[in-house]
Design goal:
Elements (H helix, E strand, L loop, with lengths): L2 H12 L2 H38 L7 H11 L13 H34 L11 H15 L8 H20 L1 E2 L2 E2 L1 H25 L2 H12 L7 H20 L1 H7 L3 H6 L4 H23 L5 H13 L3 H25 L8 H22 L6
Antiparallel strand pairs: 1-2
């Protein structure tokens, strides 16, 4: 045993018991805070999902929503829907819509936290590197030219491919001599976003009035096209994206110390950055492919979670995913019920709420010590 280790062992052995108690208490407090936050978010999400599944033209009480789910799981507890169309409304319309909202919200929330960790910038989100605008170009290409290569899924597939290709283009253009500069990547993303905006404007110029209306609704975001096939596709993409993100949470913590420090601690920064940028693109493209652009979730939710839980990514990533799911399902519930017999675009509602809230967060963080940390 080396002298240093011997000294440390001796110090540890001779250390009074009272001096180790604060560390143990801090560790227990961190675990309780982690478990408490995730428990609160999970409980809130379950409550919002049950309420959202029961509200609509065919009203189904929460007890009957829960009873229908339990009977489907083989647990014959609780009442089934008493309305003649209740069971059909739940399983053909409401459940796929709510589940798609959960998946899209989780994808956007986690992708935003990943991008902010990769770039070390609190303003970073997937749209910065052109994922959303690339997906919009793909979707609008299908709409304007009437493509049907993949049947009903053609627009979703095109949006997914457009988002991924845009991300790879930004990453390739910003890479020099085997390394990627963060500032160069963000500036390249801004340029590619501007180019995508010009293409979208040109498509809008070419389209007739009916096509312009379709493009406008897709660009505003909505869950009204949620079907079970879309849910299964998004579920697979989001499961892969979340698994990769959670696995790299400790490396993101090391990257937050700075690139040089992370390399000294054994992190392959370039490989980690490429893997997580593609993962964030996969999460975002999977989300917007079937719902259109839903803004501010990937930007605001990680900020709120970071203010509550701190900057550690082992808690930040899963909590951001749960928070994003809670926000999207709750916003969709409001969008369906704020105006009778009409549905507000989901992207408009999240922007109306998220914009002012983000401004308040900026002012609050600037006046507090270490607000952006």
């Amino acid at each position: 045993m080396s002298s240093t280790v011997q000294d440390e062992t001796r110090q540890s052995t001779n250390q009074p018991r009272g001096t180790r108690r604060p560390s143990n208490r801090n560790s227990i407090a961190r675990r309780l805070r982690r478990g408490g936050l995730l428990t609160v978010l999970t409980g809130g999400l379950l409550v919002v999902c049950i309420v959202a599944a029961g509200v609509g033209q065919v009203r189904v009480p929460p007890a009957e929503v829960l009873g229908s789910l339990l009977h489907w799981l083989g647990i014959e507890i609780g009442p089934l829907p008493t309305h003649p169309q209740g069971q059909s409304a739940l399983w053909n319309v409401r459940f796929p819509r709510v589940l798609l909202g959960v998946l899209v919200g989780a994808a956007l929330g986690c992708a935003g936290a990943v991008m902010q960790g990769v770039f070390g910038n609190p303003l970073a989100e997937p749209s910065v590197i052109g994922v959303s605008s690339g997906a919009a170009v793909g979707a609008f290409t299908v709409i304007v030219f009437g493509l049907t290569t993949f049947g009903n899924a053609t627009m979703a597939v095109a949006a997914f491919i457009g988002g991924l290709l845009t991300t790879l283009l930004v990453y390739g253009l910003s890479r020099t001599e085997g390394r990627t500069d963060v500032v160069t990547m963000i500036l390249t993303g801004i340029s590619v976003n501007a180019l995508a905006g010009a293409v979208i404007g040109f498509f809008t110029f070419l389209a007739d009035d009916d096509v312009r209306t379709t493009m406008a609704f897709w660009n505003l975001g909505s869950l009204n096209r949620a079907l079970w096939p879309a849910v299964w596709v998004v579920l697979g993409c989001v499961a892969v994206g979340l698994a990769v993100s959670f696995r790299d949470s400790r490396r993101l913590d090391l990257l937050s110390l700075g690139e040089r420090s992370a390399r000294h601690l054994g992190v392959d920064v370039e490989r980690l950055r490429l893997r997580l940028v593609i993962t964030a693109a996969l999460l975002t493209a999977a989300g917007v492919a079937f719902t259109g652009v839903i803004g501010f979730v990937g930007l605001v939710v990680p900020h709120v979670i970071r203010l509550i839980a701190g900057p550690g990514h082992r808690l930040l990533l899963p909590a951001s995913a749960l928070g994003g799911a809670l926000v999207v399902v709750g916003a969709d519930l409001l969008a369906r019920n704020l105006i009778e017999h009409q549905e507000l675009p989901l992207g408009v509602l999240t922007a109306l709420v998220g914009g002012p809230f983000f401004l308040w967060l900026i002012r609050k963080s600037r006046t507090g010590p270490g607000g952006w940390a």
